[in-house]
Amino acid sequence: MPHLTVTNTEELQSLIDRLHDAPVIAFDTEFISENNYRPKLCLVQIAAGNTHALVDPLSSGDLAPLWELFCDGRREIVVHACRSEMEFCFRAIGKMPARLFDVQLAAGFLGCDYPGGYGSLLEYFLKVKLPKAESRTVWDKRPLTALQIDYALGDVQYLQRLAESKKSVWPIWGEVLGMKKKWDGSSSICEPVSSSRVGGICPKFPA
């Protein structure tokens, strides 16, 4: 797949400029948690429209400008199972994206088994099957192999389509995803929408 490879600060800024007007950005990360006190970020994969990019944090310097782009509130950020991604973001700039769409959480609200794996969701919603050969690869070794690159890009290639497929399944998406927010003057209280409103849309995925 055609993609940009970002390995220095100049290329990073060029990518940020290119993504500035994107209404939706999907991203994922590859990292190593074994033998590290904190996970070591090794790769950031990005998809926005026809732009696909791999950002190498091992050579690109400070990624704070990229995290700031994700958190500026001007665009929707699409992810899958984003706990680690949000940890990287928060540690870097002290905040997280304001407009975040996690397809794993969305599938759970629609009645799918939770947590649903990315591959299972792709197969059910988009009829796409991804290879799993590089899921346990050594991500901090350079150069990356062609198989590693294909695997990494596959993690974001379909994220936006996956998000749109869920929104189309449930017309009152804003109510489902969120939860009605009440304001009591000092804190917000969220009430989940009744599960009877959303059950039965997704299958039970195999373990």
Describe the structure.
- The protein has 207 residues and is an alpha/beta fold.
- The chain has a single domain, classed as 2-Layer Sandwich (Nucleotidyltransferase, domain 5), CATH 3.30.420.
- 36% of the residues lie in helices and 20% in strands.
- Helix 5 crosses helix 7.
Which helices and strands occur, and which strands form pairs?
Layout: E1 4-6, H1 9-19, E2 24-32, E3 40-48, E4 51-55, H2 64-70, E5 76-79, H3 83-93, E6 100-102, H4 103-109, H5 118-126, H6 146-157, H7 159-169, H8 173-178, E7 180-183, E8 188-191
Parallel strand pairs: 1-4, 2-5, 5-6
Antiparallel strand pairs: 2-3, 3-4, 7-8
Helix pairs in contact: 5-7
Q: What would the keywords be for this entry?
A:
alpha/beta; Nucleotidyltransferase, domain 5; about 210 residues; 8 strands; six-stranded mixed β-sheet; two-stranded antiparallel sheet
Instruction: Tell me the distance between the termini.
Output: 30 Å
Question: Looking at the chains present, what oligomeric state does this protein adopt?
Answer: single chain
Count of structural domains? 1
Strand order of the largest sheet: 1-4-3-2-5-6
| Helix content estimate | 25-40%
Using the 3D structure, state the CATH architecture: 2-Layer Sandwich
Task: Describe the global form.
Answer: globular
> What is the alpha-carbon Rg in Å?
18 Å
- Topology order in helix (H) and strand (E) letters: EHEEEHEHEHHHHHEE
| Main sheet summary | 6 strands, mixed
Mean pLDDT across the residues is 84
CATH class: Alpha Beta
Assign the CATH topology.
Nucleotidyltransferase, domain 5
Structural category is alpha/beta
Number of helices: 8
How large is the share of residues in beta strands?
A: 15-25%
Q: Could you name the CATH homologous superfamily?
A: Ribonuclease H-like superfamily/Ribonuclease H
Q: What is the β-strand count?
A: 8
